[in-house]
Amino acid sequence: MSTPQPLQTDILCVGAGIASLSTALALLRTLKAQGGERPLPRVTILEKGRNVGSHVLSGAVVDPSGFRGLLTEEELAKMPFEARVTKESFHLLLNAKSSVKIPWVPPLMQAHGYPVGSLTKLTLYFAALCEQEGAEVFTGFAATELLEDDAGRVIGVRTGAKGVDHTGKPKSNFTPGEEIHAKVVVLGEGACGRLTEQLITRKGLQGQRGQSYALGIKEVIEVPADEARAGEIAHTFGYPADQRTYGGGFVYHVSPTQVMICYALALDYARPELDLHRLFRQFKAHPAMASHLQGGKAVAYGAKVIPEGGYYSVPNVVTDGAVIVGDGAGLLDTLRIKGIHLAAQSGRAAAAVLADCWNKDDFSQAALTAYGDALRRTEGWDQLKRVKNVRAPFSTHLVLGVMSAGCAWATGGALPFWQVPLEPDHQGLRRLNGGHAPTPQKLEASAVSPDRLTDLFMSGTIHDEDQPCHLKIRDRDKCVECIRVFGAPCQLFCPAEVYRLEDGHIHLDFSNCLHCKTCQIKDPYQNIEWTLPQGGDGPRYTRM
After folding, report:
1. Which of 188, 191, 445, 490 has the fewest C-beta atoms under 10 angstroms from its C-beta?
2. Pick from 207, 164, 235, 395: which is nearest to 311 by CA?
3. 3-state secondary structure 456-509
4. HEC string for 122-152
């Protein structure tokens, strides 16, 4: 049997998020504006989700600075947002009932006039613009492996096969994976992307310290119409996090009838008995938040990890044959928890270099290295430097974190001047006292506070259950030890009830997986490996 010939393209973007789409859009527009003699490159974008936007999740209050120079004024005006921020507030939640409204919104947090709405819809909008410029967008294809030549240069990807049963045998609908070769691969997989993490490890591209993450859990709530509240937003910190864990939330009125609410907790938390979905429900029940949700009903749900390591955790973003853009490079303002504008800026920086590479027909590592320099000249890079030591002190104590944030604002990031240490997330858990977690008080489910499985249903998550399990427990003996020492924390930190403790053993229901990768990050024994299911499976977000 003959070996299928690899598919050929020029620029291959993995992941159809804002970073990849900005790269493709800026590249094609730059080359068209230059009007060179060479034909335009073939730009191919692969998305593992069923549709563009199926696997993206964010607030989103969007800092529009990342789109200036990329979109026209008309395109900016047509972005799919129903509201702009008209009123904003900042709250310290003291306990389950009490809170303090900060008299002013900290300057670095202010977002007056910013558009607020769905990242899913924004991503679809960007994909349509890319296709208008000539890019090809293919959904439902999971890039499962980076391909390299004999010299170690990245030359493309292999996509995963479809129609394989749970034993690994082809079914009647079997479709083999494809090899796709390109002059350069742009990795825009998002936070903790599988190919990105493998590349960083294999090529030694790590930053000054490893990446740190938070898990963000989010719902969309339909509420009775109130025109006056559209564009109102509120941010919080404090409860239900403890004093040594970075945590906070937001509530955004994105339209007269729709509210987005999210709670995020840093994954270096210490208490193994914490149930993250339960914390989210406690957060929603706080009077300061519940007042935004009165008469409402949850209609959509999702979860995603957020790269919070900041400036010191950004890896080398270039290797021979590949560049990394967006969340995969840890490009997030850890104080504002904003990364969409940084993703767009990184995509534009990459596009400027790729345009030069195309014109010179030179995609060598030396030529691609200019992307790292271009990234460090962006406004977003200055923002990363300004808050480079904001995140780490919160792991010591809330007060130190607030002081650090204040110093960052007052000195433009000059203080504290040293690198504050931050241990890996999986090392944060402490052993259970006596080997047993306390039994929490039961929370009653309601339309505005569904239980975990009801929330999961609203995520639209679907996996073909007759396929190999994409969640791998490497050593079952370590799993048994984790149950004994930490009380099976995987069943509590997972926002989708993938892991269940039954008869002293962990059982997996991979069909519930939201692709957040919390399990791989937080597992104290690093005994869980998250791999890719067949393309098209997973969440089917439509308004997140």
Report:
1. 445
2. 207
3. HHHCCCECCCCCCCCEEECCHHHHHHHHHHHCCCHHHHCCCCCEEEECCEEEEC
4. HHHHHHHHHHHHCCEEEECCCEEEEEECCCC
| Residues 419, 391 contacting (CB under 8 angstroms) | no
Sign of CA dihedral 350, 355, 358, 362: negative
Q: What is the mean pLDDT of the chain?
A: 95
- CATH, domain range 83-116+211-310+428-530: 3.30.9.90
Q: Are 49 and 539 in contact (CB under 8 A)?
A: yes
C-alpha to C-alpha distance for 331 and 325, rounded to whole angstroms: 8
**Amino acid sitting at position 542:** T
Q: What's the one-letter identity of residue 298?
A: A
Residue 1's pLDDT is what? 46
pTM of the model: 0.96
Strand bridging mode 7-8 / 179-181: parallel
Q: Which residues pair with 306 in a beta bridge?
A: 214
Bridge partners (DSSP) listed for residue 115? 84
Would you say the C-alpha torsion 125, 345, 40, 5 has a positive or negative sign? negative
| Phi, psi for 49 (deg, rounded to 5) | -70, 160
Residue-wise pLDDT tens digits, 446-455? 899 999 999 9
Residue 442's contacts (CB-CB under 8 Å, 6 or more residues apart) are none
CB 293 within 8 A of CB 284: yes
Q: Is the CB of residue 329 less than 8 Å from the CB of residue 188? A: no
Domain ranges of the chain: 7-72+119-207+314-386, 83-116+211-310+428-530
For 291, the token pair is: 């007042």
CATH architecture under which domain 7-72+119-207+314-386 falls: 3-Layer(bba) Sandwich (3.50)
Token digits of residue 455: 């929330």
C-alpha span between 131 and 216 (Å, rounded): 31
Those residues whose C-beta lies under 8 Å from the C-beta of residue 228, and which sit 6 or more positions away, are: none
CB-CB contact of 14 with 190 (8 Å): no
Q: What is the pLDDT of residues 364-413, one digit of tens each?
A: 999 999 999 999 999 999 999 999 988 888 888 888 888 887 887 778 77
What confidence tens digit (pLDDT) does each residue in 464-493 have? 999 999 999 999 999 999 999 999 999 999
Tell me how far apart the alpha carbons of residues 297 and 520 are, in angstroms, rounded to a whole number. 32
How many CB atoms within 10 Å of residue 197? 19
Q: Is residue 307's pLDDT more than 60?
A: yes
pLDDT tens for each residue of 32-73: 999 978 999 999 999 999 999 999 999 899 999 999 999 999
pLDDT digits (tens, 9 = 90+) for 161-174: 999 999 999 999 99
Cβ atoms of 496 and 305 within 8 Å: the answer is no
The first and second tokens of residue 426, run together, are 């999986």
Which residues make beta-bridge pairs with 220? Answer: 260, 300
